[in-house]
Amino acid sequence: MKPENLLQQQSHFAFGKNWLDYARKIDEAKISQAMVDLRQLSGRQRFDGLSFLDIGCGSGLSALAAVRLGATRVTGVDIDPDSVKAARWVFAKFAPEFPAEFQVRSVFDMTAAEFGNFDIVHSWGVLHHTGDMARAIKAAGALVGPGGEFYLALYRKTPFCGMWRGIKHWYSKAPPSSQRRARRTYIFLRKTALRMKHQDFDAYVQGYARRGMDFYNDVHDWLGGYPYQSIDPDTCHALLTRFGFEVDREFVRKSRWPLRGLMGSGCDQYAFHRVRHVA
Ligand SMILES: C[S@@+](CC[C@H](N)C(=O)[O-])C[C@H]1O[C@@H](n2cnc3c(N)ncnc32)[C@H](O)[C@@H]1O
Q1: Which of 181, 149, 122, 100 lies closest to 249 in space, CA to CA?
Q2: Is residue 126 lining ligand 1, measured as CB closer than 6 Å?
Q3: What pLDDT sits at residue 4?
């Protein structure tokens, strides 16, 4: 790994440790859920014959879902060596015969000359954690082949993003005991909010199926995910248009509730396709 990446990683939350923990929880039900959600985002039933690049691959679950959907060339990169370790472990367990390639790499150090182009570039919940979201989107988009597709999930801008940036900065550097206390507080507030809506917390956690993720790992990831940026859909569209893409579908939140974002900004999801090359 290049020295500047090592430095960059030291200012990052230790995402990979959380993915190593989560990887042990992956089972066929979680893989099926990840496939359902990847199908929905892509608008495709199958990825037969397609190449798939997952930037910020985390546990490798999305890459595995792409394999199960028929992708023939699958590459995953992540800046955190523990994420790459988790993804390799998940593939050794669930797709040992598939020749997926996982590398420790920052999106900022990837070029089409080295990696080639991909039919699909997928980066879920990643590019807002790089410290320079717009440059990261451009770098990831440059790996999408002509007519290829670019699937993104990015934190939605809310009035509480400044507060969360401060909390995340603190949490990502805090000792494990303080992190545990912060998680307990957050979960208590979550429970209270659910109770006010007459919802049961245990049922909520059990039914927490989003992309096959786990509620408790997601709480740690949410509280610690630093660097942190966010974006609204209009700004995202304008940026992607500038980089040569058109939107195919999007799953963006419509709520105008004034306290929206108080407990978390949540990710908006977008599927774009390349219409022109931008140098
Ligand atoms: C919130 S996790 C999302 C993981 C996975 N995409 C998923 O959906 O479960 C963000 C991931 O992005 C990785 N990451 C952060 N900055 C990165 C960069 N500059 N290049 C590549 N990966 C990066 C982190 O190490 C982490 O594994």
Answers
A1: 149
A2: yes
A3: 42
CA quadruple 70, 276, 143, 238: dihedral sign: negative
Candidate of 26, 38, 129 to mutate for ligand 1, largest count of ligand atoms within 8 Å of Cβ: 129
Alpha carbon 158 to its chain centroid, in Å, reads 19
Residues above pLDDT 90, as percent of the chain: 87
Identify the H or E element spanning 122. Answer: strand 118-124
Is residue 182 lining ligand 1, measured as CB closer than 6 Å?
A: no
In this prediction the pTM is 0.95
State residue 264 phi and psi, 5-degree precision. Answer: 150, 145
Would the CB of 172 count as within 6 Å of ligand 1? Answer: no
- Give me the pLDDT at residue 7, please: 40
Which pLDDT value is given to residue 2?
54
Is residue 142 within 8 Å of residue 114, measured between CB atoms? no
Q: What is the pLDDT of residues 87-145, one digit of tens each?
A: 999 999 999 999 999 999 999 999 999 999 999 999 999 999 999 999 999 999 999 99
Please list the residue range(s) of the chain that carry CATH number 3.40.50.150.
Answer: 3-157+229-274
More confident residue, 152 or 7: 152
Share the mean pLDDT of the chain. 94
Of the candidate CATH numbers 2.60.40.10, 3.40.50.150, 3.30.70.3270, 3.40.50.1370, the domain formed by 3-157+229-274 belongs to 3.40.50.150
CB 149 near ligand 1, within 6 Å: no
Total number of residues shown for the chain:
279
The CA-atom distances, in angstroms, between 206 and each of 117, 156, 160, 187, 260 are: 39, 25, 28, 14, 24
- Note the pLDDT of residue 10: 60
Q: Cis omega (within 30 of 0) on the bond before 227?
A: yes
